[in-house]
């Protein structure tokens, strides 16, 4: 048997087109060829189950090997195999009239996952790294003859009699000069680990040394010896292929460690398992993130029938859940013809919605089942919940029942609980409930204590996303405003139309303001002399709530860049009823007045960590002089 011919396409050379349009990364040739070998193996197993193949299945391990001297990589299986006629059908007759037409026809194909799955197209990825490819195959069919197919990367091929004695197929790649990097054990091992780690058929690559028991020594202690065993690179039944009731917590934790060896244990996980209206399995883990954005987003791995596809899952997983870790496996997610990129599709949206709902349901369940344990996890999961409420309306509707607010006393409340808690003491003259919050409780301690003296409660909202979360709460919660605790002096944080009268005359107030303006000498600070509680500080430095919030949002990329570029503007509130003001007015000369005023302002700045460098040094010297 010998035959020569031309591959049935109306173009001079299909292979440059394949390289340019179908495959974005040349290492995936190994994924495609191993996947094809696994498909062929699963099909023979299926035929055996159906009684359509009665032969001995034998060892169905797929083997990957390489020969550095001969510059070849070989993928061998004991699957269906092919006859010469089947080679002509599946390999030679690529079902389109021209490469350009093919690319145009299938670039938006809804069934692209099936297209790539057919033995043929994925096979041609071999020519990304090989100048010549051989197929040596023997079909499972009774009386079949072994066949060999050879192609040198042009449209010319040759079919001849093969020499394979057992059912199955060898794909032999003769590696081209530019791709000799793949003739390396560790390079191939890395690719197999990346793409084939969870394929459902054992994959052998080389051998490895293991230590096994070898009887007892003279002292009765166990002896060990080193033996060479097959290096099986994959786990054929990962946990996401099992039913949740088959698994224990230890199984989920062990799998997490397998995926992310250097990570802390996750907080909890969600097992995805749905077969209608789409097929989706997987496990998503909530990692410990704390209060900073650890934006290592590409931590969710997408598989299709246990073949790794990508860790770019932004279309499938809602944006706010991109910080999760884990795996998703679905044959229903449409891929382009190289299996490398997701395509827009109604199934993707359905899966996105399903994952959102599953996460919301899981969080709601945890909250109801054990609120104390949920509160203990809040510092870690709060970022996910707030992000979700901001970005997904449906998630907000569920999340408002299990989102928590934490105050400076480490007490936790739902949104409704907190509003009920503070509405008596913190309702302003217009019947708005005011939530006070701190972004840095340590730095803002002076303001928090002043608020507490008035029986005001203060929340801690210190994560990077909280400036956006605050805005959302104001939009969603009826007649509710949020104000940072240092946005004004305590007496004016909540406007109740109550105030202390100023003991200073108008003339004295004007004089005091002038003294402080001279002491500060900074146009970004506006001085106001106010009638405040005599027990409050003599000077308080604040930034107006709107400006502060716009600047916070600008820092976290909230589209407020204009405000971020403006210089900080502060208000200096001088307490006209404080005894320090009396001391200033009664000072012996203008220099002494300025010195006391400057000292009072620097104390206020020091309390907020604003006093630095030369100003701090001068403050220390002045303090020593005043002692």
UniProtKB/TrEMBL annotation:
Superkingdom in the source lineage: Bacteria
An annotated Gene Ontology molecular function: unfolded protein binding
InterPro entries: HATPase_C_sf (IPR036890), HSP90_C (IPR037196), Hsp90_fam (IPR001404), Hsp90_N (IPR020575), Ribosomal_Su5_D2-typ_SF (IPR020568)
Sites where the protein binds ATP: 32, 36, 77, 82, 97-98, 169, 339
Keyword tags: ATP-binding, Chaperone, Cytoplasm, Nucleotide-binding, Stress response
Matches recorded under Pfam families: HATPase_c_3 (PF13589), HSP90 (PF00183)
NCBIfam families in the record: PRK05218.1 (NF003555)
Family the UniProt entry places it in: Belongs to the heat shock protein 90 family.
Protein's recorded name: Chaperone protein HtpG
Organism: Litoribacter ruber
The organism's taxonomic lineage, starting at the top: Bacteria, Pseudomonadati, Bacteroidota, Cytophagia, Cytophagales
